[in-house]
Structures are given as C-alpha cells and as structure tokens.
Amino acid sequence: MDPFESIKQTFFQECDELLTDAEQGLLAMESGEADDETINAVFRAVHSVKGGAGAFGLEDLIRFAHVFETVMDEIRSGKMELTDEVAKTLLRAFDVLADHVAAARDGGKVEEGRSQGAYSELRGLIGGEDEEDDLGGGGDEDFGFVPLTLSIEGEEAPGGFIDLDAQNAEAGVEIPATDQASRDELASWTVEFSPKSEMYAKANEAGLVLRELARLGETRVTLIDDTLPPLDQLSAEQAYVSWRIQLFTDSDEASIREVFEFVEDDCNLIISRDRAEPSVAEPADDGLSDDDRAAAASANADLDIAALLARVGGGDADAEPEATPESVAELPPAAPPEAPAEDVAALIARAQSVAAPPAAKPATPAPTPAPVAAAPAAAAAPAAVANAAPAAAASVTIRVDLDRVDRLINAVGELVIQQAMLSQRVLESGLARSSNVALGLEDLELLTREIQDSVMAIRAQPVKSVFQRMPRLAREVADMTGKRVKLVMEGEGTEVDKTVIERLADPITHMLRNAIDHGLEDPEGRAAAGKPAEGLVRLRALHRGGRIVIELQDDGRGINRPRVRGIAVERGLITEDQVLSDEEIDNLIFLPGFSTAEVISDISGRGVGMDVVRRSIQGLGGRISISSEPGKGSKFTMSLPLTLAVLDGMVVTAAEQTLVAPLSAIVESLTPRTEDVHYIGGKDAVIRIRDIFVPLIDVGVALGFRETAIDPASGVAVLVESEGGGKAALLVEAIQGQRQVVIKSLEANYQQIDGVAAATILGDGRVALILDVDALVTTQRRKPAARPSEKRMAS
Amino acid sequence: MTAPLTTSTSPSRELIAFRIGDQEFCVDIMQVREIRGWTTATPLPRTPAYMKGVINLRGAVLPIVDLGARLGLTTAEPSARHVIMVVNQGHRTLGLLVEAVSDIINVTEDMVQPTPDVACDQVKTFVKGLFAIEGRMVSLISLDRVLPEIEAEAA
C-alpha cells in the first residue's frame, strides 16, 4: 500500500475513536453531566481531527472542524454558556462533522446545504466575532503560511537571526530595574523543559516552544547543557540539552502548559510557581495524537528554517528543517564556562567546516537549541534529566488484524475437536480411566477449554461500538418526524463476539427507527396522553443465561392491536374469524410485508422492517419477542448467542444420522405415548403435550433421509420453540447427549441447505449437521398449508 | 486461485491422471491440494445424488462429489480403495471421489485435442480436451463446472 495511504487510514481510524469520544462528551454536555475535563476532551478530539485533516489537506473538514473547535474553545474558556440549545446545536453539528470525516475517507462530499446549515449555526453561536481568520492558535491550520511575525523577534536582527539572546539578556538586565510592584502582580514561574529525542524526531523545535513561551511574558532562559557529551561521543539522534525558564506572566498554569501542548508527551516538563506555590510535576498526558503534533510541527518548521539558514549561510532554502548546531554559537560568553560548553564550541567549529555544502544531508542533526539564550546563571536548581521519563504512556491495548484472530480461533476450534477425538479413541482402546494417558488427557482437556475461552475473549467486544451509532440515529429520526426523543443506553460494556456485534447494528437500527417512528407519539399526542413531551427510548444490553439480551423499550403508544389485526386480515395474513391472543397479535408485526404506518415513510422503510429484523436475528441463532401495553409503550427483546463460533447443542440420532439441535430452541424432550399422537386428515401428525397440540415432525423424513416416519412411540420427541413463538415437536430416534460444538460453515465450501443451519465435527471426527429448527418447522407447515403465515400464527 | 487451465500460457504442464470406471481423466496438478483415502461421509439432505456428503478435513467441512456420477458414468459405491482428490475450485475446496489416481503426466499445450463431437452433452460439459498418452486416451476435466450450480442456488 502506498505509505501515504496507510498513514491516512491510520488517521481515519483515529478519527473514529476521536469522534466516538467527542460524541460521548457532547452527550454528557447535553445531559448536563459534563465537567471541565469532558469539555476539554471534546475540544481536544475535534482539534486533533482538525490537525490530522490539515496534514492531508482536507479543506472541507478543516473548515468545519475549525469552527466547531472555536465554539468548543469558547465554551471551555467560559466565554460561552453551555445551554441546552448550544449542546443540541453542537450535537447536530457533530453529525455533520462525522459526515465530513466519512466523506473525506470515502471520497464523497457532504451535502452542501446540510454542511452550510450546521456551519452557520455554529457561526451563529460564536456571534459577531470573526474567528475564521484566526488560525494561528493551533498553528496547524495552514501549511504554506509564512512565518508570523512574533512580537519577541527582533524585526531584522543582523544576518536575519532572531535574536532571542539580546531580548533575554536585556530582560535579565532589566529585571532589577522593572517596577517591583508590577512585578509582584505578575506571577513568577519556573519552567523546566527537557526535550527528549522523540520530540525532535517528530520535527518539533525547542526554540519555537521557547519563543511561544516568551509571548506570555518576560522570560529568563537558562541553558542546561550538563549532559552534553564530548563531540566524539555525541549522537546525532539524542537530545542532550534542557532549559530552565523563569517566566513573569499574568497567565495561569494552563496557558503555560498550552505552549507545550504539542510536545508535552515528548519532554519532561516541570512547571512550578515560584514562592507562592509548590512545584507541580505532572506526567505529560494530554491525549493528543501524533498526527496533531506532527501537523503542528510541520507548520512551525518554516519559521525556524529561515532563521537557521541565515546562520548557516549559503544553505539553500530547501535544506532540512532540523536545527543545526550553528545557533549554539550564539551562546553568550557569559554562559558558565564549563567543559561541555567547550565541546560545543569544538562541535561548532567542526560543523562549520563540514557544513560547506548546504546542509542537505538527510541525517537528523543533533537536536540542538534554536536561538536561545543562556542568561547569567540565574537559578542553580539541578538540571532536569531527560531519561527520567514518565512511563505513563505505556499502552494497554494493541490493534490486531481480525484475520489473525480468526485464524487463531479456527485453529483452537480444531484443537478442541482433535482433543475430543483423542479422548474418545483412548476410551475406545480400553485404557483405564486412571491410567496416566487418560489422566494426561483430562488435563489437556482442561487446558484446551481454557485456551478456547481465552481466544473467544479476544474477539469479545463491548456492544458500545454498535450502541454509539444510535444517539445520532435517534436525533435524525426525531428531527425527521418532528418528535422529541431521549435515548437512554445501558450496558454498553456488555461483551459479545465481534461477529455478532457486526450483525447487530442493522436489527437495532431498524428497531430504533420503528420505536421512534411508530412507537412514540408526536409532542401533541404525548401531551394529550399526559406524558412528557420528550419520548423516552431505552436501549439496554445485558448477559442472561449465556446469551446476550438486547432490549429496546419505548414509552409510546404501544401496539394498536385492533389495527394490527385489521391490517393482518386485510392483507390476508390471518382470517377474520381467527382467534388470536394479544401476544400473537403483537407478533403479527414480524410477518413479511406488514407495516402499520399509515404512510410509508423514508424512515421505517417499506414494511419490511420488522420482518428483516426477525430474519437477521434468526440468522444469528437468536430470537426476538415483543411485549406491549397499549398507551404505555412497547418492549422488544432480542436474545442472541454470545458467539457464532460455538453452540450448545443436543446431539440426537435420526435416520441413523447424528444431528445436533441447538439447545436454545429446545423447550423439553419427552417420549411420545401412542395415545397422544393424532393424525390430522390421517396424514399430518400432531402430538398432545399438556393439552396443547403441536405438529410432530419426523426429522429423518423432513430432511429427506427416509420416506416414512418412524413409530412415534419408539422415538423421542424434542419440543422446540421457533422464533415466532410457534412450537413443534421433532421426532428423533434417540438423544445421545448434550455438548458444546464448534460451528463450521457449510457455505464455505458448498452451499446452504434448507433445514441445516451449519455443520460441526464431533468427537469421533465425523461431520454432524446442526439442525435449523425454524426452517424445519416452517417447511413442515408450508408443505400442507396454502397460507403459511396463517398456519404459523395459528399454532 | 484461478484455474490455470484457462489462463496458463506455459507450453508444458503437469497433470494428475485418475480412473473412473475404465476411463482416464486428468486435472491440472496445481489444482490438487492432496489425495487421501476414502472415509465415510456424512450425507447431506436434499442434495443431488452425486453429492456424497461432507467429511472432516482437519477441521474443515469438505463436500465430496462422486465425479463418476457427476459425469454421468458410473455411480461408485465407495470402498477403501477409492480415493478423494482434494481440489481447489475457485475459492472453495472440495473433494472428488475417484477410483484411483494412476499417473502424473507431462504435456504441452499442443498435445491437447479438442473434444470430438461424438461425446454426449454431459461429458462435453466437463471435458475440455483429450490427450493421447502411450496409446491411452486421457480426458482433461474442467473443474469449474463440477459444481456449477452452487452460485445460483446459494444466491
């Protein structure tokens, strides 16, 4: 892959994470739970997005992110009050921001009106101030910009050198002369700044940071070069020098820290307030991305080149932006004449002789100070040592390609099968259970289980990644329908296999749309019903009985049963005289082609919604049900397996074949008594189980393994419940037992087979088929019935 | 993996020859992953007669096609002397049940003769060409069509 593309991809991956964080922060802001740190986090996230966008020249994104950032800045600095209205505007604008990121990634374009609308809204918040041109703050906006004239620079110092020395020396001299009273008003800070080599590696420049710092007030800068080795031991990649700066300013610590914003992770920074406050050392951790820093650094680089090139003399304008040792020469003689300083002088002499050709060598020169003064040895505190780096940045997560994890999971699946085979073989060979081999195998089994669990845990992820898309959806649907919605989400940390998560998004999306579009009343309707104008939708995830349960509950009008029934009759889904329980009526909405919305809207699709939901959940081996109370709301409950890789099954024998029935579908098993089995029309068997008649399906016949059904009394009936709540009894010859099986796809090498969900490999090494209970039940019904849905509901 | 049968421009290539009944067929050696003895397959419901079922190939579910039945020749009652050729067909892997693997033959492209018009349609569908090797006739099988209906049914 093009390296640039790969960097860009990393940027977009980071964007996703940043946007997620930002959205959570914004939601917290909306609900009034946000503290300063939350607001700062949102600001930083947006800022980082902007910074990265700058590096890739994504103009639209930069422009939008900038105005967003400006608003966030106003809020965090307290200039703007965080009202409900502001929070809502920000959330809307955030959606557009996310679209901008998506558009930049996928090469599309955000709808002009939408973007412009949100942009104007944000601008409206800022008010009359024209912030657009104020791009200097982050310094990462515009790559081509000419060095800004900073107040500290001597306008045209001889040779173009930006004479900080003079400035500082002057400051140093003047200090005693300055009005002592005003000095007292200004706090005195001591900043110890020890860059690490990483900082220079990211093309940051200490001199620029110091210059930035000097904008806050008078500075007295001391160069600490104690660790500078003799020239012959000097490594070009290492950082040796640090600075101690005494700063007189009315700015607070945060503002001082902000100067170091881009380098904070890559230096040791101690900011302490002299006299009044104790020294505060803080591990650098600002959550900024490398992109951000890099963006800033490249933007800043220009400034330095001009200054340095002038010094080097004869260097052409395209030379490496890194600092060369040249500027060290400007150290005033007043600097402590210590040995290292002499080495520096030697270094410079060498460097100058070598630097006859323009400094175009790709090697990174020693990270040496840009023009910085060593004021008369003012303070004598020990130098900050660069290698005392805080190890706080150690990462606790790694990114792993999903393919690799899948390969591992497959391998472990095979291991489990092999292990089971081996155990069975040993058992068959007649070895005693107490033999060493058998005991060793038992240990192996335990170990295998543990490995399998651990591997599965790698792929388990919190449902958060799906849930986090929902607030936006809720806002959009609410806007389109003119309803007001509050979405409450719980259990976002509930973990489930990644393959399940990926396929959860669609069903939840459908259900959420339905809940808002169909379930909730409009504000007037709610007022009339005596409910708060804002509808409440609760999305919840939890673990229950080895499955994940997802509930979506609204406090809307509930299912209008007479109307649902009417529509079902109208569409021929049920007959007019059919008696249905409330629950059965509710479940009618899952039938294909059913939509209760009088007007088919964009939002809820074309009446395929709940049917699609049910089918995709069934596809995951899950089930969905609804409970509804008129006037109070509805609750959808989905229950899904935690993983698609293993399944708890009942191993049965039918037509001499070993088959596996998913345990989740099984209600009970029983031995049929001949007097309980009846034949409708002399053909289709039904069995009476506690006074309820359910179809009795001979599995061997249903799968086409044999022509005639076995005598029910000679087999075992397994009562299963299909997704619609319909029950049926599967007739098999025998039940072998219950075990966890590894699911193997049939489609990978062959194709889907009706009635078979997948395959697995049993302990004897043979392939066994996993029954698709729902398909078996519905196929059976479809066969004799002219109207399958009628039959389905009738059960 | 694409079928080298159609894309190969190399003048010489190796083929694996095998027997079904009294006829000899061959496929490109690059398509054959391994050859293994017959093990009892788990039958699949509602599948054509030439689908023998599925077996466990080191943890993967491998469908087995009775190639003789597929070609409309003989339906094999598999025994221990039958072999399964594990072949790659597109992105799938499947097993072909044949009576025996007989030879590895080296051929050049110009040795391939087009299938004469006499062959019945079913055979013509699968046979891409003929070779004369030491007086025997060997038919080159195109694997692409062994399970052609998969895409349509799976869709």
Automatic annotation (TrEMBL), chain B:
SMART domains for this protein: CheW
Protein name: Chemotaxis protein CheW
Residues of the signal peptide: none
Domain of life per record: Bacteria
PANTHER family noted in UniProt: CHEMOTAXIS PROTEIN CHEW, CHEMOTAXIS SENSOR HISTIDINE KINASE-RELATED
Domain CheW-like: 12-152
Alphabetical list of InterPro entries matching this protein: CheW (IPR039315), CheW-like_dom_sf (IPR036061), CheW-lke_dom (IPR002545)
One Pfam family here: CheW
